[in-house]
Amino acid sequence: MNVASRPNDIQAVIEADRAHVWHHLSQHKQYESVDPKIYVEGKGTRVWDATGKEYLDAVAGAVWTVNVGYGRTSIADAVRDQLVKLNYFAGAAGNVPAALFAEKLIEKMPGMTRVYYSNSGSEANEKVFKMVRQIAHRKHNGGKYKILYRDRDYHGTTLGTLAAAGQKERREQYGPMPEGFVEVPHCLEYRSQWGDVEDYGIRAANAIEDVILREGPETIGLLCLEPVTAGGGVITPPKGYWERVQEICRKYDVLLHIDEVVCGMGRTGKWFGYQHYGIEPDFVTMAKGVASGYAAISCTVTTEKVFELFKDDPTDPMSYFRDISTFGGCTSGPAAALENMRIIEDEGLLENTLKMGERLMNNLRELQSRHQVIGDVRGLGLFCGAELVMDRATKEPAPEKMVQAVTADCLAQGVIIGATNRSVPGLNNTLCMSPPLIINSAEIDQITGAIDKALTKVFG
Ligand code: PLP
Protein backbone atom coordinates (compact mmCIF):
# COMPACT_ATOMS: atom_id res chain seq x y z
CA MET A 1 0.00 0.00 0.00
CA ASN A 2 2.70 2.43 1.00
CA VAL A 3 4.86 2.08 -2.11
CA ALA A 4 1.94 2.23 -4.55
CA SER A 5 0.62 5.37 -2.90
CA ARG A 6 3.89 7.26 -3.21
CA PRO A 7 4.02 10.04 -5.77
CA ASN A 8 6.16 9.03 -8.77
CA ASP A 9 8.96 11.39 -7.99
CA ILE A 10 8.96 11.90 -4.27
CA GLN A 11 12.31 13.72 -4.39
CA ALA A 12 10.69 16.38 -6.60
CA VAL A 13 7.93 16.78 -4.02
CA ILE A 14 10.47 17.14 -1.24
CA GLU A 15 12.40 19.76 -3.22
CA ALA A 16 9.19 21.70 -3.99
CA ASP A 17 8.36 21.62 -0.30
CA ARG A 18 11.85 22.69 0.72
CA ALA A 19 11.80 25.56 -1.77
CA HIS A 20 8.29 26.91 -1.20
CA VAL A 21 6.42 25.64 1.85
CA TRP A 22 6.73 27.65 5.04
CA HIS A 23 6.12 24.98 7.68
CA HIS A 24 4.18 25.66 10.87
CA LEU A 25 6.16 25.95 14.10
CA SER A 26 9.44 25.30 12.30
CA GLN A 27 12.91 26.74 12.36
CA HIS A 28 13.71 26.14 8.70
CA LYS A 29 17.46 25.95 9.03
CA GLN A 30 17.05 22.27 9.92
CA TYR A 31 15.85 21.51 6.37
CA GLU A 32 19.25 22.45 4.98
CA SER A 33 20.57 19.19 6.38
CA VAL A 34 17.50 16.93 6.67
CA ASP A 35 14.55 16.39 4.35
CA PRO A 36 11.24 17.85 5.54
CA LYS A 37 9.00 14.98 6.60
CA ILE A 38 6.13 14.36 4.23
CA TYR A 39 3.32 11.97 5.05
CA VAL A 40 1.54 10.43 2.09
CA GLU A 41 -1.12 8.08 3.41
CA GLY A 42 -3.10 7.11 6.49
CA LYS A 43 -5.34 4.24 7.52
CA GLY A 44 -6.90 3.74 10.95
CA THR A 45 -4.28 4.67 13.54
CA ARG A 46 -1.36 4.45 11.07
CA VAL A 47 0.35 6.82 8.64
CA TRP A 48 3.10 6.29 6.05
CA ASP A 49 5.77 8.81 5.14
CA ALA A 50 7.26 9.50 1.72
CA THR A 51 9.96 6.89 2.22
CA GLY A 52 7.30 4.23 2.83
CA LYS A 53 7.98 3.95 6.58
CA GLU A 54 4.92 3.08 8.70
CA TYR A 55 4.09 4.83 11.98
CA LEU A 56 1.56 4.33 14.75
CA ASP A 57 0.26 7.85 15.24
CA ALA A 58 -0.11 8.46 18.96
CA VAL A 59 -0.88 12.15 18.51
CA ALA A 60 -3.68 11.96 15.91
CA GLY A 61 -2.09 14.13 13.23
CA ALA A 62 0.56 15.97 15.29
CA VAL A 63 -1.96 18.16 17.10
CA TRP A 64 -4.65 15.85 18.52
CA THR A 65 -7.12 16.10 15.67
CA VAL A 66 -7.88 12.85 13.83
CA ASN A 67 -10.24 11.43 16.46
CA VAL A 68 -11.96 8.84 14.24
CA GLY A 69 -8.72 7.78 12.52
CA TYR A 70 -7.44 7.98 8.95
CA GLY A 71 -8.97 6.75 5.68
CA ARG A 72 -12.64 7.13 6.57
CA THR A 73 -14.34 6.74 3.20
CA SER A 74 -17.79 7.39 4.68
CA ILE A 75 -16.72 10.92 5.66
CA ALA A 76 -15.18 11.46 2.22
CA ASP A 77 -18.44 10.22 0.63
CA ALA A 78 -20.62 12.47 2.80
CA VAL A 79 -18.46 15.48 1.95
CA ARG A 80 -18.37 14.62 -1.76
CA ASP A 81 -22.16 14.18 -1.94
CA GLN A 82 -22.67 17.51 -0.23
CA LEU A 83 -20.08 19.34 -2.35
CA VAL A 84 -21.65 18.32 -5.64
CA LYS A 85 -25.07 19.37 -4.32
CA LEU A 86 -24.07 22.72 -2.78
CA ASN A 87 -20.51 23.45 -1.75
CA TYR A 88 -20.94 26.88 -0.29
CA PHE A 89 -23.15 29.75 0.57
CA ALA A 90 -22.30 32.31 3.23
CA GLY A 91 -23.53 35.46 4.89
CA ALA A 92 -26.96 35.52 6.51
CA ALA A 93 -28.13 32.35 4.69
CA GLY A 94 -28.08 28.87 6.18
CA ASN A 95 -27.41 25.46 4.67
CA VAL A 96 -28.68 21.93 5.30
CA PRO A 97 -25.68 20.24 7.01
CA ALA A 98 -25.08 23.33 9.16
CA ALA A 99 -28.62 23.11 10.55
CA LEU A 100 -28.53 19.34 11.00
CA PHE A 101 -25.14 19.29 12.70
CA ALA A 102 -26.10 22.16 15.01
CA GLU A 103 -29.19 20.21 16.08
CA LYS A 104 -27.16 17.02 16.71
CA LEU A 105 -24.47 18.91 18.61
CA ILE A 106 -26.94 20.69 20.86
CA GLU A 107 -28.45 17.30 21.78
CA LYS A 108 -25.06 16.44 23.34
CA MET A 109 -24.77 19.72 25.23
CA PRO A 110 -27.60 20.25 27.71
CA GLY A 111 -28.07 23.94 28.49
CA MET A 112 -26.66 25.10 25.15
CA THR A 113 -28.80 26.22 22.21
CA ARG A 114 -26.77 28.15 19.60
CA VAL A 115 -23.89 27.23 17.28
CA TYR A 116 -21.76 29.81 15.45
CA TYR A 117 -19.57 28.33 12.70
CA SER A 118 -16.02 29.26 11.72
CA ASN A 119 -12.85 27.46 10.63
CA SER A 120 -10.26 27.18 13.37
CA GLY A 121 -9.94 26.95 17.10
CA SER A 122 -8.39 30.41 17.26
CA GLU A 123 -11.28 31.88 15.38
CA ALA A 124 -13.91 30.12 17.53
CA ASN A 125 -12.25 31.55 20.66
CA GLU A 126 -11.85 34.99 19.15
CA LYS A 127 -15.61 35.02 18.50
CA VAL A 128 -16.24 34.51 22.22
CA PHE A 129 -13.91 37.38 23.10
CA LYS A 130 -15.72 39.65 20.65
CA MET A 131 -19.13 38.60 22.00
CA VAL A 132 -17.97 39.39 25.53
CA ARG A 133 -16.67 42.80 24.48
CA GLN A 134 -19.98 43.53 22.77
CA ILE A 135 -21.92 42.40 25.85
CA ALA A 136 -19.72 44.75 27.89
CA HIS A 137 -20.81 47.64 25.69
CA ARG A 138 -24.44 46.71 25.48
CA LYS A 139 -25.16 45.47 28.98
CA HIS A 140 -22.47 46.78 31.32
CA ASN A 141 -21.89 50.28 30.04
CA GLY A 142 -18.32 49.40 29.06
CA GLY A 143 -17.58 47.46 32.27
CA LYS A 144 -16.95 43.70 32.47
CA TYR A 145 -14.69 43.80 29.43
CA LYS A 146 -11.69 41.98 30.85
CA ILE A 147 -10.92 38.42 29.88
CA LEU A 148 -9.26 36.11 32.37
CA TYR A 149 -7.05 33.31 31.07
CA ARG A 150 -4.91 30.81 32.93
CA ASP A 151 -1.16 30.39 33.17
CA ARG A 152 -0.10 27.51 30.81
CA ASP A 153 -3.38 27.48 28.81
CA TYR A 154 -3.40 28.22 25.09
CA HIS A 155 -6.22 29.48 22.90
CA GLY A 156 -4.79 30.23 19.47
CA THR A 157 -2.62 32.31 17.18
CA THR A 158 -4.64 35.45 16.44
CA LEU A 159 -3.63 38.58 18.37
CA GLY A 160 -6.72 38.33 20.59
CA THR A 161 -6.13 34.71 21.49
CA LEU A 162 -2.39 35.29 21.88
CA ALA A 163 -3.21 38.00 24.41
CA ALA A 164 -4.98 35.19 26.29
CA ALA A 165 -2.03 32.79 26.09
CA GLY A 166 -0.76 31.42 29.39
CA GLN A 167 2.30 30.25 27.47
CA LYS A 168 4.00 33.61 27.40
CA GLU A 169 6.70 32.65 24.92
CA ARG A 170 4.02 32.49 22.25
CA ARG A 171 3.57 36.26 22.54
CA GLU A 172 7.25 37.13 22.30
CA GLN A 173 8.09 39.47 19.40
CA TYR A 174 4.40 39.78 18.43
CA GLY A 175 3.43 42.70 20.69
CA PRO A 176 1.89 45.07 21.42
CA MET A 177 -1.01 42.89 22.48
CA PRO A 178 -4.68 43.90 22.75
CA GLU A 179 -5.59 45.20 26.21
CA GLY A 180 -7.89 43.80 28.86
CA PHE A 181 -6.48 40.27 29.25
CA VAL A 182 -5.48 39.16 32.74
CA GLU A 183 -3.77 35.95 33.86
CA VAL A 184 -4.87 33.65 36.69
CA PRO A 185 -2.60 30.97 38.24
CA HIS A 186 -2.26 27.44 36.82
CA CYS A 187 -3.71 24.38 38.56
CA LEU A 188 -0.86 21.87 38.18
CA GLU A 189 -0.81 20.11 41.55
CA TYR A 190 2.53 18.44 40.77
CA ARG A 191 4.05 21.93 40.80
CA SER A 192 1.87 23.28 43.59
CA GLN A 193 2.28 26.97 44.44
CA TRP A 194 1.32 26.16 48.07
CA GLY A 195 3.45 23.09 48.77
CA ASP A 196 1.90 19.75 49.62
CA VAL A 197 -1.67 20.62 50.63
CA GLU A 198 -4.89 18.60 50.90
CA ASP A 199 -7.11 21.22 49.29
CA TYR A 200 -4.98 22.15 46.28
CA GLY A 201 -7.93 22.28 43.87
CA ILE A 202 -9.89 24.70 46.05
CA ARG A 203 -6.83 26.91 46.56
CA ALA A 204 -6.11 27.01 42.82
CA ALA A 205 -9.73 28.05 42.17
CA ASN A 206 -9.68 30.59 45.00
CA ALA A 207 -6.61 32.12 43.37
CA ILE A 208 -8.93 33.05 40.49
CA GLU A 209 -11.24 34.79 42.95
CA ASP A 210 -8.26 36.74 44.30
CA VAL A 211 -7.53 38.04 40.79
CA ILE A 212 -11.19 38.99 40.28
CA LEU A 213 -11.19 40.94 43.55
CA ARG A 214 -7.85 42.60 42.77
CA GLU A 215 -9.01 43.73 39.31
CA GLY A 216 -12.56 44.61 40.46
CA PRO A 217 -15.45 42.23 39.64
CA GLU A 218 -17.17 45.03 37.74
CA THR A 219 -14.34 44.87 35.15
CA ILE A 220 -14.30 41.09 34.59
CA GLY A 221 -16.49 39.68 31.82
CA LEU A 222 -15.09 36.24 31.05
CA LEU A 223 -13.04 33.39 32.42
CA CYS A 224 -11.58 31.27 29.61
CA LEU A 225 -10.15 27.85 30.55
CA GLU A 226 -9.17 24.57 28.92
CA PRO A 227 -10.84 21.56 30.59
CA VAL A 228 -7.47 19.78 30.49
CA THR A 229 -4.60 22.11 29.64
CA ALA A 230 -3.21 20.52 26.50
CA GLY A 231 0.00 22.00 25.05
CA GLY A 232 0.82 23.64 28.40
CA GLY A 233 1.64 20.29 29.97
CA VAL A 234 -1.40 17.95 29.88
CA ILE A 235 -2.70 19.40 33.15
CA THR A 236 -5.74 17.61 34.52
CA PRO A 237 -7.77 19.64 37.00
CA PRO A 238 -7.26 18.86 40.68
CA LYS A 239 -10.09 17.65 42.93
CA GLY A 240 -12.80 20.23 43.64
CA TYR A 241 -11.38 22.76 41.18
CA TRP A 242 -14.15 23.01 38.62
CA GLU A 243 -16.98 23.06 41.14
CA ARG A 244 -15.38 26.00 42.93
CA VAL A 245 -14.61 27.76 39.64
CA GLN A 246 -18.28 27.56 38.72
CA GLU A 247 -19.30 29.03 42.10
CA ILE A 248 -16.85 31.90 41.69
CA CYS A 249 -18.11 32.72 38.19
CA ARG A 250 -21.71 32.79 39.43
CA LYS A 251 -20.81 34.87 42.48
CA TYR A 252 -19.16 37.63 40.42
CA ASP A 253 -21.33 37.38 37.30
CA VAL A 254 -18.38 36.27 35.16
CA LEU A 255 -19.20 34.28 32.03
CA LEU A 256 -17.45 30.90 31.83
CA HIS A 257 -15.86 29.85 28.54
CA ILE A 258 -14.53 26.32 28.15
CA ASP A 259 -12.06 25.92 25.29
CA GLU A 260 -12.72 22.36 24.07
CA VAL A 261 -10.67 22.78 20.88
CA VAL A 262 -8.58 19.78 21.95
CA CYS A 263 -10.80 17.97 24.46
CA GLY A 264 -14.06 18.22 22.52
CA MET A 265 -15.67 15.46 20.50
CA GLY A 266 -14.74 12.49 22.61
CA ARG A 267 -11.04 12.98 23.34
CA THR A 268 -11.52 12.59 27.11
CA GLY A 269 -14.15 9.82 26.97
CA LYS A 270 -17.16 12.14 27.14
CA TRP A 271 -18.39 14.31 24.32
CA PHE A 272 -16.78 17.29 26.05
CA GLY A 273 -14.18 17.52 28.79
CA TYR A 274 -16.30 19.81 30.99
CA GLN A 275 -18.98 17.12 31.16
CA HIS A 276 -16.81 15.13 33.58
CA TYR A 277 -17.38 17.83 36.19
CA GLY A 278 -21.07 18.69 35.98
CA ILE A 279 -20.47 22.36 35.26
CA GLU A 280 -22.62 24.68 33.14
CA PRO A 281 -20.51 26.92 30.92
CA ASP A 282 -21.79 29.97 29.05
CA PHE A 283 -19.56 29.34 26.02
CA VAL A 284 -17.95 26.20 24.64
CA THR A 285 -15.58 26.29 21.66
CA MET A 286 -14.41 23.28 19.66
CA ALA A 287 -12.46 22.55 16.48
CA LYS A 288 -9.96 19.74 16.03
CA GLY A 289 -12.04 16.59 16.56
CA VAL A 290 -15.26 18.11 15.23
CA ALA A 291 -14.53 16.73 11.77
CA SER A 292 -11.31 14.90 12.68
CA GLY A 293 -9.36 16.94 10.11
CA TYR A 294 -11.48 15.80 7.15
CA ALA A 295 -12.70 19.39 6.76
CA ALA A 296 -11.97 22.72 8.43
CA ILE A 297 -14.69 23.55 10.93
CA SER A 298 -14.95 25.10 14.36
CA CYS A 299 -17.92 26.00 16.52
CA THR A 300 -18.64 28.59 19.16
CA VAL A 301 -21.56 27.26 21.17
CA THR A 302 -23.54 29.27 23.70
CA THR A 303 -26.78 29.53 25.64
CA GLU A 304 -30.07 31.18 24.73
CA LYS A 305 -29.40 33.66 27.54
CA VAL A 306 -26.25 34.90 25.78
CA PHE A 307 -27.91 34.77 22.36
CA GLU A 308 -30.81 36.91 23.63
CA LEU A 309 -28.36 39.70 24.43
CA PHE A 310 -27.75 40.13 20.70
CA LYS A 311 -31.38 40.09 19.65
CA ASP A 312 -33.02 42.95 17.87
CA ASP A 313 -32.85 46.21 19.78
CA PRO A 314 -34.78 48.95 17.97
CA THR A 315 -32.76 51.60 19.80
CA ASP A 316 -29.41 50.19 18.67
CA PRO A 317 -28.69 49.35 15.01
CA MET A 318 -25.38 47.79 16.12
CA SER A 319 -27.02 45.33 18.52
CA TYR A 320 -26.51 42.11 16.56
CA PHE A 321 -23.23 40.16 16.39
CA ARG A 322 -21.57 41.88 13.43
CA ASP A 323 -19.18 39.12 12.51
CA ILE A 324 -18.72 36.72 9.62
CA SER A 325 -16.35 33.93 8.75
CA THR A 326 -16.24 33.52 4.95
CA PHE A 327 -15.58 29.82 5.08
CA GLY A 328 -18.12 29.33 7.85
CA GLY A 329 -20.36 29.01 4.78
CA CYS A 330 -18.56 25.88 3.52
CA THR A 331 -20.92 22.92 3.71
CA SER A 332 -18.03 20.43 3.77
CA GLY A 333 -17.38 21.19 7.48
CA PRO A 334 -20.77 20.33 8.94
CA ALA A 335 -21.25 17.46 6.44
CA ALA A 336 -18.00 15.91 7.66
CA ALA A 337 -18.87 16.71 11.29
CA LEU A 338 -22.23 14.93 11.05
CA GLU A 339 -20.63 11.73 9.76
CA ASN A 340 -17.77 12.08 12.27
CA MET A 341 -20.30 12.21 15.10
CA ARG A 342 -22.23 9.23 13.73
CA ILE A 343 -18.99 7.19 13.71
CA ILE A 344 -18.17 8.13 17.31
CA GLU A 345 -21.66 7.04 18.37
CA ASP A 346 -22.07 3.91 16.28
CA GLU A 347 -18.60 2.57 16.96
CA GLY A 348 -18.80 3.25 20.72
CA LEU A 349 -15.69 5.43 20.63
CA LEU A 350 -16.45 7.23 23.90
CA GLU A 351 -16.44 3.87 25.69
CA ASN A 352 -13.28 2.80 23.87
CA THR A 353 -11.61 6.07 24.85
CA LEU A 354 -12.31 5.49 28.54
CA LYS A 355 -11.12 1.88 28.35
CA MET A 356 -7.99 2.55 26.32
CA GLY A 357 -7.26 5.72 28.26
CA GLU A 358 -7.23 3.68 31.46
CA ARG A 359 -4.85 1.17 29.91
CA LEU A 360 -2.55 3.96 28.71
CA MET A 361 -2.50 5.56 32.17
CA ASN A 362 -1.83 2.19 33.85
CA ASN A 363 1.00 1.47 31.43
CA LEU A 364 2.48 4.93 32.05
CA ARG A 365 2.29 4.41 35.83
CA GLU A 366 4.10 1.11 35.39
CA LEU A 367 6.82 2.90 33.40
CA GLN A 368 7.00 5.51 36.15
CA SER A 369 7.71 2.77 38.68
CA ARG A 370 10.79 1.76 36.65
CA HIS A 371 12.02 5.05 35.17
CA GLN A 372 13.09 7.66 37.73
CA VAL A 373 12.90 10.30 35.02
CA ILE A 374 9.09 10.15 34.94
CA GLY A 375 8.12 12.58 37.68
CA ASP A 376 4.38 12.65 37.07
CA VAL A 377 1.78 11.04 34.83
CA ARG A 378 -1.52 12.76 34.08
CA GLY A 379 -4.43 12.11 31.81
CA LEU A 380 -8.13 12.03 31.08
CA GLY A 381 -9.47 9.58 28.51
CA LEU A 382 -7.07 9.41 25.57
CA PHE A 383 -5.21 12.57 26.39
CA CYS A 384 -2.21 11.63 28.53
CA GLY A 385 1.14 13.07 29.51
CA ALA A 386 4.30 11.98 31.32
CA GLU A 387 6.38 14.78 32.81
CA LEU A 388 10.13 14.11 32.70
CA VAL A 389 12.37 15.43 35.49
CA MET A 390 16.07 15.04 36.24
CA ASP A 391 15.49 14.67 39.96
CA ARG A 392 12.24 13.60 41.60
CA ALA A 393 12.96 15.62 44.76
CA THR A 394 13.74 18.96 43.08
CA LYS A 395 11.52 18.28 40.03
CA GLU A 396 14.14 19.87 37.81
CA PRO A 397 12.66 19.58 34.32
CA ALA A 398 14.42 17.33 31.82
CA PRO A 399 16.21 19.48 29.22
CA GLU A 400 14.48 20.03 25.90
CA LYS A 401 17.20 18.22 23.94
CA MET A 402 16.73 15.03 25.98
CA VAL A 403 12.94 15.17 25.68
CA GLN A 404 13.36 15.58 21.94
CA ALA A 405 15.76 12.65 21.89
CA VAL A 406 12.97 10.53 23.41
CA THR A 407 10.39 11.57 20.81
CA ALA A 408 12.98 11.12 18.03
CA ASP A 409 13.79 7.62 19.22
CA CYS A 410 10.07 6.72 19.35
CA LEU A 411 9.75 8.06 15.80
CA ALA A 412 12.64 5.88 14.68
CA GLN A 413 10.79 2.95 16.29
CA GLY A 414 7.71 3.84 14.23
CA VAL A 415 5.63 5.55 16.94
CA ILE A 416 4.79 9.25 16.76
CA ILE A 417 4.48 10.84 20.19
CA GLY A 418 4.55 14.52 21.12
CA ALA A 419 6.14 16.80 23.69
CA THR A 420 4.66 19.98 25.07
CA ASN A 421 5.78 23.59 24.76
CA ARG A 422 8.92 23.32 22.77
CA SER A 423 10.65 26.64 23.07
CA VAL A 424 10.40 27.37 26.80
CA PRO A 425 13.11 26.24 29.17
CA GLY A 426 11.49 24.13 31.86
CA LEU A 427 8.12 23.78 30.19
CA ASN A 428 9.02 21.41 27.39
CA ASN A 429 9.31 18.32 29.44
CA THR A 430 6.00 16.50 29.14
CA LEU A 431 5.61 13.64 26.69
CA CYS A 432 2.20 13.80 25.18
CA MET A 433 -0.12 11.09 23.80
CA SER A 434 -3.51 11.53 22.16
CA PRO A 435 -4.05 8.71 19.64
CA PRO A 436 -7.13 8.28 17.45
CA LEU A 437 -10.05 7.10 19.60
CA ILE A 438 -10.23 3.80 17.67
CA ILE A 439 -6.94 2.59 19.14
CA ASN A 440 -6.75 -0.97 20.56
CA SER A 441 -4.90 -2.56 23.50
CA ALA A 442 -2.00 -3.89 21.43
CA GLU A 443 -1.41 -0.43 19.99
CA ILE A 444 -1.52 1.18 23.44
CA ASP A 445 1.13 -1.31 24.51
CA GLN A 446 3.15 -0.47 21.39
CA ILE A 447 3.14 3.23 22.39
CA THR A 448 4.35 2.63 25.93
CA GLY A 449 6.76 -0.08 24.75
CA ALA A 450 8.42 2.47 22.46
CA ILE A 451 8.59 5.06 25.27
CA ASP A 452 10.11 2.44 27.59
CA LYS A 453 12.91 1.70 25.12
CA ALA A 454 13.48 5.37 24.31
CA LEU A 455 13.74 6.36 27.99
CA THR A 456 16.25 3.60 28.63
CA LYS A 457 18.30 4.72 25.67
CA VAL A 458 18.26 8.43 26.52
CA PHE A 459 18.30 8.38 30.33
CA GLY A 460 19.71 4.90 31.05
N1 PLP B 1 -7.33 26.12 21.80
C1 PLP B 1 -6.55 25.09 22.19
C2 PLP B 1 -6.75 24.50 23.54
C3 PLP B 1 -5.57 24.58 21.32
O1 PLP B 1 -4.77 23.59 21.72
C4 PLP B 1 -5.45 25.16 20.03
C5 PLP B 1 -4.46 24.63 19.07
O2 PLP B 1 -3.69 23.74 19.33
C6 PLP B 1 -6.26 26.24 19.69
C7 PLP B 1 -7.19 26.69 20.59
C8 PLP B 1 -6.11 26.93 18.36
O3 PLP B 1 -6.70 26.18 17.37
P1 PLP B 1 -6.30 26.44 15.83
O4 PLP B 1 -4.89 26.03 15.65
O5 PLP B 1 -7.29 25.58 15.09
O6 PLP B 1 -6.53 27.88 15.57
Automatic annotation (TrEMBL):
Q: GO annotations under biological process?
A: L-arginine biosynthetic process
InterPro entries, A to Z: Aminotrans_3, Aminotrans_3_PPA_site, PyrdxlP-dep_Trfase, PyrdxlP-dep_Trfase_major, PyrdxlP-dep_Trfase_small
The record's keywords, sorted A to Z, are: Amino-acid biosynthesis, Aminotransferase, Arginine biosynthesis, Pyridoxal phosphate, Pyruvate, Transferase
- Gene Ontology molecular function terms on file: pyridoxal phosphate binding; taurine-pyruvate aminotransferase activity
The reply on keyword Transcription is no
Q: List the cofactors.
A: pyridoxal 5'-phosphate
Catalytic activity, EC: 2.6.1.77
- Record Gene3D superfamilies: Aspartate Aminotransferase, domain 1 (3.90.1150.10), Type I PLP-dependent aspartate aminotransferase-like (Major domain) (3.40.640.10)
PANTHER family associated with the record: AMINOTRANSFERASE (PTHR43094), AMINOTRANSFERASE CLASS-III (PTHR43094:SF1)
Family label: Belongs to the class-III pyridoxal-phosphate-dependent aminotransferase family.
* Full protein name: Taurine-pyruvate aminotransferase
